[in-house]
Design brief:
The protein has about 325 residues and is mostly beta strands. It is built from no helices and 27 strands. The chain has a 5-stranded antiparallel sheet, with no helix packed on it. The chain has a 4-stranded antiparallel sheet with strand order 4-3-2-27, with no helix packed on it. Strands 5-6-7-8 form a 4-stranded antiparallel sheet, with no helix packed on it. A hairpin with a 3-residue loop joins strand 14 and strand 15. It is globular, with a radius of gyration of 22 Å. The two termini are about 30 Å apart. The N terminus is likely disordered.
């Protein structure tokens, strides 16, 4: 997405790591924080894990929010706040634990983070827009805490257009850490993401074909890779090939990710296959695949190293190295 018209206001004279004003004092550190290689975000609980050899070892946990109690019947006014967050760097983990509540987790403890006032997030209403989350406006209520490499932001969309599936007019992005800043942009902040490994095995290559299809060439020949067609016209049950990544070279293992693309909304990933070479045999299939550091990645909550499963974990956030 093209970014235009960014207004950036930085606080002057702030220290690199200022103290954070909050609603309560720091509480004891997260158990296992010092030795953790990753954390998982569960139903109000953050759990630490270490990677030891070919195993995921649970170290400890802390409850940051009550369990979500889902209504037995549909309630249009019900809003759930599952834990979201990530590591800004190796020493600072940020987690949203409820409506307008964020904590910073460090070796020293767990501290509330002061959030920007509603007035500082307001913008004049452009013609033709609706309040975000209101009738006719695009619902961006779940986008607030965004953790990037080295920074934590509070990202909100005050006004949005209802046409073409809905899109935001402008985003107000307020930096929470390490130093205060505010920007108004046509794009929301993008969370940190690990790059996928992609070293092709000797004799293998991926080439574009027609549309979103790809051709995988191997010493045994070529196979076309493409998404699943709709079962009937207008059924909307098909998908398209999004990307391919080589996850291992010996034996060759190719990750193929499928999903849906939208003009004004984020792409939606729907499934993946881990192929034996170019396929068509899949050695692993699932709904979600997320990259991690080096050869690590996560398949439906299972930590993988290349083509091998290391252990079950959950909603994983890998810890960066120094």
């Amino acid at each position: 997405m093209k970014v235009a018209g960014i207004l950036f206001i930085a606080a002057c004279g702030a220290s690199a790591h200022p103290p954070l004003a909050g609603n309560r004092p720091a509480v004891p550190a997260l158990p296992g924080f010092a030795d953790a290689d990753l954390v998982t975000l569960g139903d109000g609980v953050v759990t630490t894990y270490a990677l030891r050899g070919d195993a995921v070892v649970r170290l400890g946990e802390v409850r940051l929010a009550p369990p979500i109690v889902w209504p037995e019947e549909f309630d249009p006014g019900f809003v759930a706040y599952p834990l979201i967050g990530d590591w800004a760097d190796r020493d600072h983990l940020f987690v949203r634990t409820g409506e307008r509540r964020v904590v910073m987790v460090t070796a020293d403890g767990i501290t509330d983070v002061a959030l920007p006032s509603p007035a500082s997030l307001a913008l004049p209403q452009p013609e033709g827009t609706f309040a975000t989350g209101a009738s006719g406006g695009r619902d961006y209520m779940r986008i607030d805490l965004v953790v990037t490499a080295g920074e934590a932001w509070w990202s909100t969309c005050p006004w949005s257009f209802p046409n073409d599936g809905g899109f935001c007019d402008k985003w107000v992005n307020t930096r929470l850490w390490p130093a205060p800043a505010r920007e108004v942009s046509e794009s929301e902040k993008r969370p940190r993401a690990w790059p996928w490994p992609d070293r092709a095995p000797r004799g293998f290559a991926i080439e574009p074909a027609d549309g979103s299809a790809m051709t995988c060439r191997s010493p045994a020949g070529a196979i076309e890779l493409r998404g699943k067609p709709e079962s009937a016209e207008g059924a909307d049950d098909g998908d398209m090939l999004f990307e391919t990544r080589w996850m291992a070279t010996d034996p060759p293992r190719l990750l193929v990710v499928f999903g849906h693309a939208y003009e004004y909304s984020p792409s939606q990933l729907t499934r993946f296959q881990l192929l034996d070479g170019c396929g068509p045999t899949a050695v692993l299939e699932g709904a979600s695949a997320d990259p991690g550091p080096g050869a690590l990645w996560v398949a439906d909550g299972v930590v993988m190293r290349g083509a091998s499963a290391v252990g079950n974990a959950g909603d994983v956030r890998f810890r960066p190295s120094r």
